[in-house]
Amino acid sequence: xxxxxxxxxxxxxxxxxxxxxxxxxxxxxxxxxxxxxxxxxxxxxxxxxxxxxxxxxxxxxxxxxxxxxxxxxxxxxxxxxxxxxxxxxxxxxxxxxxxxxxxxxxxxxxxxxxxxxxxxxxxxxxxxxxxxxxxxxxxxxxxxxxxxxxxxxxxxxxxxxxxxxxxxxxxxxxxxxxxxxxxxxxxxxxxxxxxxxxxxxxxxxxxxxxxxxxxxxxxxxxxxxxxxxxxxxxxxxxxxxxxxxxxxxxxxxxxxxxxxxxxxxxxxxxxxxxxxxxxxxxxxxxxxxxxxxxxxxxxxxxxxxxxxxxxxxxxxxxxxxxxxxxxxxxxxxxxxxxxxxxxxxxxxxxxxxxxxxxxxx
Length: 361
Prior knowledge:
The protein is of the alpha/beta class. It has helices at about 110-125, 130-135, 150-155, 175-180, 220-235, 260-270, 285-295, 310-330, 335-345; strands at about 1-5, 20-25, 30, 55-60, 65, 95, 100, 140-145, 165-170, 190-195, 210-215, 240-250, 270-275, 275, 295-300, 305, 350-360. The chain is about 30% helix and about 25% strand.
């Protein structure tokens, strides 16, 4: 059984949600019956779902990771925002770890990836559907975070769960794993594991109470999501998947090219990469159906970003990546001037995501 609150789009753009429309501080309509409207997304808070081993990288306690050196209570290096005054015409593209322009990513350290994840972390925290956390079983103590990045989901979720907690941070990037282990709050212990999320098995989930991820599902294929649902069903493990792309963007004020940019971006997110057709904005619907068929009680909530002039660094960086991916898909569109206009006067934006809770009784 699937319970859906608010509109979960699968590729439509700027569709009006049901309910009574009002306006929030950002000038974007909200839905007072079903929550905030669900819109389009950037690719962001997750590492590449490519091939990886199952090597354990580090184990940490409350004082930080045993391997790699600890920085208890310190800021994550490389996690600050980029300069919001970067050249207006710079066009980046979105990789699985965030927006990237030519020459901006250090492939050996993932430094730009960590920077992007740090920049978006406050918007992620504000967008996630907290009421889904309140529906989790009270017995949750061991959590496996898939594609954990710098651990922002853990830092957000951990204070809302009973302690003590044990987290298993899973990612392909060892540098990000160390950051994730380093940044978890008191009351938690952390083990990190370098693992391709598509290789996860029910045996891996032995002793796990909850599987989580953030902005990851759109990078998977339908078959991979269905397999993940089957694995979780076999292990009888609850899941909380946050910030999955929904395929809608709403901007205020509007620009005549907004719709074409959104459509091109969504096409880019559904592209075939290395023989895998990515789900992109179809991910929430596919995941809800897969977990429902696997026997879970599924609840979906909208979790849109609210961007605009009050968040200039993140809004500008999101615009560069959003437009850059659209230009990769549709090089015929006049997007240089469009980006210049948008960066010169940052719009208010509702950038849509959806959160999904699945519980196996």
